[in-house]
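Figure 2 data, in text form.
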Amino acid sequence: MARFRIHIRAALPLILIGAAACDATPPPVGMVRGAELYETCLPCHGESAVGNAEIEAPAIAGLPQWYIEEQLLGFQQSWRGGHFQDIAGMRMRPMAISLTREGDIESVAQYVAAFEPVYPSSTLHGNAGAGAAIYNAVCVTCHGPEGLGMPELHSPPVVQLDDWYLLTQLRNFRTGARGADPENVWGVTMRANTLALSDQAMQDVIAYIQTLR
């Protein structure tokens, strides 16, 4: 009898592990899981995903699912949020890294993409006329004449992005805080297009983008 009790005691951890494995069913993939995951995004991006400029959290409501997925992967792989000059990106990166379960990125991206798109108010004061010339010479090939982006070129719809956020990201590309990783091919391409732009030129092209809405 004593020998039997010893064998049961030795086997107990294996039994518990097996039971845990049977119960460790993955969470559902899709909108339900996305809603659960978005709870961690609420403090910065808000209930309607319209963002909060005071903490440099952009509006993300209604952005394409493919774009949200790509950016979350970029944060996970340090293409974004890995440079000391990108403070907001450094805050965002741990949130992306926490998406460890299979399907998590796709689920939260699907959930955010389902929000009604927003077009934040302008906060900058550039020259839209001067910006039109820059946009049509530099930006139109990837972002399109209406600023709606092109998935095949990995370019987002810039008309949906906050103007202050656009300015921050253009500066990040210019300084190398973003788009400097050679593995981030599309980021490298974008960075090349910002190197010759002054802050005023950036504000001008952003002012023109606002007119495309």
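Caption note: DSSP finds ten helices and no strands in the chain.
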